[in-house]
Amino acid sequence: MNSGKEPFDGDDLVTETYRELGVEKAPERLNQDVLRMASGGGLRSPTRNILFGAWMKPVAWAATIGLSLAIVLELSEVPTAPVQSDPVRSDSMPTAESMREEALEETQVINAVEVFSREPKGKLDAVAAPSQPPIAAKTEAMVSDLFLLEQSDIADSCDAAVRLSRESWLTCIEELRQSGSEEAADREYEAFILDYSVESGDLEENK
Amino acid sequence: MTLCTDAPIPKLEPSTATLCSVAELAYAQAMGHIPEDSALMLRYQDGDTAAFETLYRRHNDALYRYLLRHCRHPATAEDIFQDVWGKIIKARASYRPTAKFTTFMYRVAHNCFIDHVRRNKRHSNSAELQPELHADTSELPDTIAERSLAKERLAVALQELPEEQRDAFLLHEEAGLNIDQIASVTGSNRETAKSRLRYAINKLRAAIEEPK
Q1: How large is the C-alpha radius of gyration of chain A?
Q2: Which residues have C-beta within 8 Å of that of residue B66, sequence separation ≥ 6?
Q3: Average pLDDT over chain B, rounded to an integer
Q4: Fewest CB atoms less than 10 Å from the CB: which of A163, B33, B65, B203?
């Protein structure tokens, strides 16, 4: 094996001692891998362990730091206030029941406004009395505002008794128009249309 | 009778060529004729995997020891070993027998090891001393104990050599390369290679002869 070597003084001792260190052989598993590779068969990547060894530590550190940050951020976002017992029923998500209640309130307010606009102030209590207390209070407040704004016009409108009859209400409207209260007449006529669904022909006749 | 080394490389189907070469190699070995490494590599270039196996079995252990002595870590040595043979297999198509096959093979191994050192600077800190070097020598006869200590000192001194000197020594001892071939493998000039080898041998001898 060493036929090509140049002679070196005293290297026999070194060579002999070196040979005594041992004659390790390549593992048979390794031999089979290489021979399989030589015959064109598959083989695990020879540099896999080298590359993995080189990158393993940085990747492990990065993963540890990333996971730690994620946990810290997750913990910092946990709310300190007690959790609501039923988070589904929150204010931001109206339920069908709450929507029904709101619709009912609006209907009652509209009805009350109509009644107040037609009835004199004395009948206000009679209208609001059957309603539920909170809704009645709200309705009363809204209607009061409207009532104050239109209080001056009430004198120029037809009273409730007149409005009970179609002919008498139209007569009243005609009288208002003849007396020069055009605005009151128009307002009454609009209310009349709402109540009796007057045909457009009647409008032209009364104008 | 035409032997493997002299026969022109036939252009046969790979399976046929392999069967033929197995018989030829068996006959050549039986007759005491040992094909040259380069001839085996050329036959492998033509698809003869049996020729490669012969070539491989001829050099695998020495190459493994060369890498093991360098790395001092069996797993790393195995990885580089596979890498070296993988490169040789891949390069078979472009292989030209312009130099001795062992020179070519150890140049690949040298480069793979240098790449590994550059990739992973920690290799020098991952030394695994061989267990037999730490055997209890207190109960052995004087001569055996002295040889055991000499081996231990040599092993330690080998690891303490500068990498270039250790490389030159291992190429000399394991691969059997001469000064010119060592210079070719390591990419240095002849005088540098000779100087490295001489320094290495002198240091190792001094370590072996070191008094207790």
Answers
A1: 49
A2: B106, B109, B170, B171, B174, B175
A3: 77
A4: B33
Q: Are residues A200 and A127 in the same domain?
A: yes
Cβ distance B201 to A37 less than 8 Å, yes or no, reads: no
Q: Which of A4, A25, A53 is the closest to B181 by Cβ? A: A4
**Residue range B175-189: average pLDDT?**
90
Residue A120 lies in a domain: yes
Query: Touching check for B63 and chain A: CB below 8 Å?
Result: yes
> Is the Cβ–Cβ distance between B4 and B44 less than 8 Å?
no
Are A34 and B85 within 8 A, CB to CB?
yes
Identity at B142, one-letter amino acid code = D
Q: In this complex, is the C-beta atom of B154 within 8 Å of any C-beta atom belonging to chain A?
A: yes
- Predicted TM-score of the model (pTM): 0.49
In this structure, the number of other CB atoms found within 10 A of the CB of residue B61 comes to: 15
What chain B holds in terms of domains, given with CATH numbers, is 11-125 (1.10.1740.10), 133-212 (1.10.10.10)
> Within a domain: residue A160?
yes
For residue A23, the enclosing domain spans 11-59
Residue A138, both tokens: 């709200």
**B34 and chain A in contact, CB less than 8 A:** no
d(CA A186, CA A179): 13
Residue B195's pLDDT is what? Answer: 92
Q: Place B79 in a pLDDT band, splitting at 50, 70 and 90.
A: very high
Q: Is residue A101 assigned to a domain?
A: no
Specify if A43 maps to a domain: yes
